[in-house]
Amino acid sequence: MTANISPKVRVVLIDDQEVVRIGVRSALENDGQIEVVAEGETETDALHLAREYHPDVVLFGLNTITSEKPSSVVLSACDTIRGLVQTCQTNILVLCRYAHKVLVRAVIRAGASGFMLKDEAMNSCALLVQTIIDIARKKKLTLSLSLYEKLYINGVELEDLPQLTARRIEIMQTIADNPHLTLNQVADLLGIAESTLRNNLSAISRALNTPNANGAMIECVRLGLVMIA
């Protein structure tokens, strides 16, 4: 009997530094579980290659982010990520040298499936490979241990951090962004039924061990999962 062999995860690699692309491609393909089907330098390349090759994951490097002024680049990157998700239905793993809270939240809200520090990815091929496979096959939101430690500095341990899906974080952020709207109006904004929204809010409250949606919102803000303008 022939054993079942899992197909390789197809990856498009985007990074404006050629030496990074060479190193990452070599590391990924040497593992044997991943096939880099195409690579490019720019956000335009990312959209074009994703449409052409239909990858499981786009590995999206952000090299022009600085520790002082990430804002304008973040906006452009988020537009690209939204385009990839909406038109190509692909998963995106963002690699960046800096782990700004605003940056991570922005790219996740735009639709990225995961975020890794570039140094961490380059130093551990096994971790990068596993993260890509997790995103491609399990479709889960992926943040690494070191990134959790950087983002959640208020004494919250990783094992204690509530595991909300990206969609439920989006629900809470939408409510936070639109405090003047009723639940029915928020549901319309999210494209779901009000009953579905209420069910999600109940599930979020249970996950956060809070008595109601208001308590859940306070906890989301405290943990840094939701931003209040």
Written account of the structure:
The chain is α/β, with parallel strands linked by helices. The protein folds into two domains: 9-151, Response regulator (Rossmann fold), CATH 3.40.50; 162-223, Arc Repressor Mutant, subunit A (Orthogonal Bundle), CATH 1.10.10.10. It contains eleven helices and six strands. It has helices spanning 18-31, 43-53, 71-88, 101-110, 118-123, 125-138, 145-151, 166-177, 183-190, 194-208, 213-223, and strands at residues 9-14, 34-40, 57-62, 91-96, 114-117, 142-143. A six-stranded parallel sheet has the order 2-1-3-4-5-6, with helices on both faces. Helix 1 packs across helix 6. The longest helix has 18 residues, at 71-88. The chain is elongated and about 50 Å long. Residues 65-71 and 153-161 have low confidence and may be disordered.
List its traits.
229 residues, alpha/beta, Rossmann fold, Arc Repressor Mutant, subunit A, six-stranded parallel sheet, 11 helices, 6 strands, 55% helix, elongated
Task: Reconstruct the topology from this structure.
Layout: E1 9-14, H1 18-31, E2 34-40, H2 43-53, E3 57-62, H3 71-88, E4 91-96, H4 101-110, E5 114-117, H5 118-123, H6 125-138, E6 142-143, H7 145-151, H8 166-177, H9 183-190, H10 194-208, H11 213-223
Parallel strand pairs: 1-2, 1-3, 3-4, 4-5, 5-6
Helix pairs in contact: 1-6, 2-3, 3-4, 9-10, 10-11
